[in-house]
Amino acid sequence: MKSIFEKTLVYYLWQEFLVRYRFKYVLPRIKEVTLEGLRFDVSTLSPKIRNRLLSGAYEANEKKMCLDFLNSKDSVLEIGGAIGFIGLLCQKIIGIKNYCCVEANPRTYETLKRNYELNGVAPRVWNIALAHADGEVDLEVGSDFWENSICYQNNTSRGIKTVKVPAGTMQSLLNLAGHKVNALIIDIEGAEQFIDFNRVPEEVNKIIIELHPNVIGQEVTYNIVATLISMGFRVAREENDTFVFLRK
């Protein structure tokens, strides 16, 4: 008869085998997934991202916040469109008509456009990064799109791959939208530190933003929250560094 230790060891070895098999053989064969009734091309994404999408954990906080706080009459600019999940959720499920977004990574931008087209949505998207000034920036390109970040020093000596991408300030991106925006959705892996929130227009009364204290530091994170509160926003919800700010 096997001891409890032996049974436990066998169980964990079996679980490890199943995980390895899934990541090596099952996930790479999945080319398209359906989430919330929406279709997504995942053929260029890593097994790690495919697994997160299938688990239902991908953008779970942002999804719930959009469903709870946005409505079809909102006019939205999304900064950091990723593969288009939040944008399609807002347009196809919430019914928002005035919606546009920007995505910094050229490769992710192409995936985003494909996913919009898969779901019959004409993409109003631009390949541009939010930055502290208009022009160009170097974007660190990780193996997964959520590892992308803007850098301002030469990282080639550390073996970090970068690409040059167009860049614009918050004001430039709002001008690009071509219409008045009252809601911002922001998830840009630390580049939120380059937003001058004091210059956010008065008509913006909803901000859904993921902050990244592990990238920008706690002090900068607290300063962003304090600035928005000083401008008349209140924290309507917070989940795992993702916030909803509302103001009258």
Describe this structure in words.
With 248 residues, this protein is α/β, with parallel strands linked by helices. The strands form three sheets. It has a seven-stranded mixed beta sheet, sandwiched between helices. Strands 6-9-7-8 form a four-stranded mixed beta sheet. A two-stranded antiparallel sheet has the order 1-2. The chain has a single domain, classed as Vaccinia Virus protein VP39 (Rossmann fold, 3-Layer(aba) Sandwich), CATH 3.40.50. It has helices at residues 4-26, 47-55, 60-69, 85-94, 106-118, 170-177, 213-216, 218-230; strands spanning 32-35, 38-41, 75-79, 98-102, 125-126, 129-130, 135-140, 149-151, 162-168, 183-186, 206-210, 234-239, 242-246. Helix 3 runs parallel beside helix 4.
Number of helices: 8
**Mean pLDDT across residues:** 89
Please identify the top-level CATH class.
Alpha Beta
The proportion of residues in beta strands is 15-25%
Largest sheet: 7 strands, mixed
